[in-house]
From TrEMBL:
Its cofactor is adenosylcob(III)alamin. Keywords: Cobalamin, Cobalt, Isomerase, Metal-binding. This is (R)-ethylmalonyl-CoA mutase. It comes from Micromonospora chaiyaphumensis. Residues 535-664 form the B12-binding domain. Gene3D superfamilies: Cobalamin-binding domain (3.40.50.280), Methylmalonyl-CoA mutase (3.20.20.240). The keyword Electron transport does not apply. The keyword Isomerase applies. Belongs to the methylmalonyl-CoA mutase family. PANTHER family: COENZYME B12-DEPENDENT MUTASE, METHYLMALONYL-COA MUTASE, MITOCHONDRIAL-RELATED. GO terms for molecular function: cobalamin binding; metal ion binding; methylmalonyl-CoA mutase activity. Heterodimer of an alpha and a beta chain. InterPro entries: Acid_CoA_mut_C, Cbl-dep_enz_cat, Cobalamin-bd, Cobalamin-bd_sf, MeMalonylCoA_mutase_a/b_cat, MMCoA_mutase_a_cat.
């Protein structure tokens, strides 16, 4: 028990949590400048966002990278890019978080090499590689290799950092995207802890860490969580997380030291819960969500990064990120929050909430373990189906008005917002020339290398990957030889193969008692009869590297419930693959989902492909985070409809899809 001052306050005010903003776009040089500005404004740690080609192991000149370079993060294709990213930033003095998963080993190798070039001792470097691949198969989609091979890479990184970088968090078990994919608090805790068990088992079973050092491993594992607007429930969730983590690490892994068993986590509050409609309401949402992970001292986040008010509109500007940073600073420095012990000790309400979540999460965890662990639960599709079903339930409650979202399904009357009056200027714009520059730069980098050294390094990587050797040494040799991100991942693809995760649609629940669905079913059936086909056929396509598939999956589920035959092949498809599927499956409509900002490149590529295939008559609709000016451009290019986050009523969207098919076929 903490010694308290007579007033009930702590003897001295606590230090605030690490304050970050999730940042990166365009180029390494531009992101470096953004980092410097944010640090000057009082940010106390770095959180690096990488672009989708980097996250999925492709160079900027790869076909799948088209339209994606520098959009949702910074492109890092080789050691030169990493040098530019951290130029003038002393890594030995900086807590650096890198949101990277499938190629986490590669980016850590680049980071460590740059730190060494700066003269920093690796043992002093503090920070985090997210390095949690399991949630990528379930929600985010930036996986590369099969689960078993990916867990091997995770274990190798943990073993390496235990020896060389003892202040580094080598893995950040990430429940953040599970919540966005539909997880209830019980599922979020249960599924995340099942992932943690898989990671710890992989490390233990690899033989790289002595049994007596498992406490050191546990001590360096952190978590990255989501905080929704139901902040009382979120406080209980975090307290439940801590209680179960303490229990698992003590009983399953024999960790006796309670300090090593402490639940350590960072947080970004819910981005996909922010709204395009009345986006000024996102400010109070972000603040309430921040309270959910800061109010309880015994379950307080170690690091916090907040989204910006306009993330449902596009990429935030530096000013928007500053506003979110200032929210943290006002809470930490102006309020009295850090002067008191835990505010919820002895609360009957909080104790009951925590107990409920602990009990439910324990059931979910045991269910996964009985299936053979989290890898088996991924490969069978159980986890994905559970999340798709939970998200469908959440959507139904929102559409029915049971769950109120202010400005979206209630209190929709509004004055014009001065925040969005600037139109396209209200978000950050990525210059299309960025991609061309990155493509040229990576080719120039390849041309200037010692080709023999590159070949030798890649040969060693492939050879080591075929054994049980820790791959960090071979990776570091690749870094020093000038290997690129795409070449490193490509060499491992040759050994491990690639993977396509289950879509989760088969086990998803239907639309239940949606009163409008019956009429839409009748329209679907009638339109199919008029066209002389058995059923209307919808192709749902995810072009490029955007792995945010939640919206596409919910559209697919609702369209299927309405009587459509749905063709959905999952994420990461080229325009050519989407066109080929549309022609071969003889679909009536193509629906494209793009949330990464690459819509102006990805969508015209599909339209051009359909035209070349003789199917220019096939209607195309698009959904995603698409600014109004871009939506106009897509419609001018031939897109029949553009849907954005404000279009939340799925049954209404499906009804509109029927209208599009009827219009395209000249039906009244």
């Amino acid at each position: 028990m903490d010694e308290k001052a007579p007033s009930g306050r702590l003897p001295e005010r606590e230090r605030p949590w690490v304050m970050r903003t999730y940042a990166g776009h365009s180029s390494a040089a531009a992101t470096n400048a953004l980092f410097r500005r944010n640090l000057a404004k009082g940010q106390t740690g770095l959180s690096v966002a990488f672009d989708l080609p980097t996250q999925t192991g492709y160079d900027p000149d790869h076909e799948l990278a088209t339209g994606e370079v520098g959009r949702v993060g910074v492109p890092v294709a080789h050691l030169g890019d990493m040098r530019a990213l951290f130029e003038g930033i002393p890594l030995a003095e900086m807590n650096t978080s890198m949101t990277i998963n499938a190629p986490a080993m590669w980016l850590l190798g680049l980071y460590g090499t740059v730190a060494g070039e700066q003269g920093a001792e690796l043992a002093r470097c503090a920070g985090t590689t997210q390095n949690d691949i399991i949630k990528e198969y379930l929600s985010r989609g930036t996986y590369i290799f099969p689960p078993a091979a990916s867990l091997r890479l995770t274990a190798d990184v943990i073993a390496y950092t235990l020896r060389e970088m003892p202040k580094w968090n080598p893995v950040n078990i990430c429940s953040y995207h599970l919540q966005e994919a539909g997880a209830t608090p019980v599922q979020e805790v249960g599924f995340a802890l099942a992932t943690a068990v898989a990671v710890l088992d992989a490390v233990r079973d690899s033989g790289q860490v002595p049994a007596e050092r498992m406490g050191d491993v546990v001590q360096r594992i952190s978590f990255f969580v989501n905080a929704g607007v139901r902040f009382v429930e979120e406080i209980a969730k975090m307290r439940a997380f801590g209680a179960l983590w303490d229990e698992i690490t003590r009983d399953r892994y024999g960790v006796e030291n309670p300090r090593q068993r402490r639940f350590r986590y960072g947080v970004q509050v819910n981005s996909l819960g922010l709204t395009e409609a009345q986006p000024e309401n996102n400010i109070q949402r972000i603040v309430l969500e921040m309270l959910g992970v800061t109010l309880s001292r015994d379950a307080r986040a170690r690091a916090v990064q907040l989204p910006a008010w306009n993330e449902a509109l596009g990429l935030p500007r530096p000013w928007d990120q500053q506003w979110s940073l200032r929210m943290q600073q006002v809470l930490a420095y102006e309020s009295d929050l850090l002067e008191y012990p835990d505010l919820f000790d002895g609360s009957h309400v909080m104790t009951a909430l925590v107990d409920d979540i602990v009990a439910g999460a324990r059931v979910e965890l045991e269910k996964v373990l009985e299936m053979g662990g989290v890898v088996a639960a991924v490969e069978t599709g159980y986890l994905k189906s559970a999340l798709v079903a939970s998200l469908a339930d959440r959507r139904r409650r929102m559409e029915a008005g049971t769950d109120v979202v202010v400005g979206v399904n209630r209190f929709t009357e509004t004055e014009p917002s001065p925040l969005t009056a600037a139109g396209a200027e209200a978000i950050e714009q990525v210059d299309p020339a960025v991609e061309a520059a990155a493509t040229s730069a990576v080719r120039e980098w390849r041309a200037g290398r010692d080709a023999a050294a590159v070949d030798a390094a890649l040969a060693r990587l492939r050879a080591d990957a075929a054994t049980t050797t820790n791959l960090m040494a071979a990776t570091l040799e690749c870094v020093r030889a000038g290997v690129t991100t795409g070449e490193w991942a490509g060499a491992l693809r040759q050994v491990f193969g690639e993977y396509r995760a289950p879509t989760g649609l088969a086990g998803a629940a239907g639309a239940g008692g949606d009163p409008g669905l019956g009429a839409v079913r009748e329209r679907v059936a009638a339109t199919a009869r008029e066209l002389g086909s058995g059923r209307l056929r919808l192709l749902v396509g995810k072009p490029g590297l955007d792995g945010h598939s939640n919206g596409a999956e919910q559209i697919a589920v609702r369209a299927r419930d309405a009587g459509f035959e749905v063709v959905y092949q999952g994420i990461r498809l080229t325009a050519g693959q989407i066109v080929a599927a549309a022609v071969e499956e003889d679909v009536d409509l193509v629906g494209l989902s793009v949330l990464s900002g690459s819509h102006l490149a990805a969508v015209p590529a599909v339209l051009d492909g359909l035209h070349a295939a003789g199917r220019a008559d096939l209607p195309v609709v698009v959904g995603g985070i698409i600014p109004a000016v871009d939506a106009d451009a897509l419609r001018a290019a031939g897109v029949a409809r553009v849907f954005t986050p404000k279009d939340f009523a799925l049954t209404g969207i499906i009804d509109d899809l029927v209208t599009v098919i009827r219009e395209a076929n000249g039906l009244s």
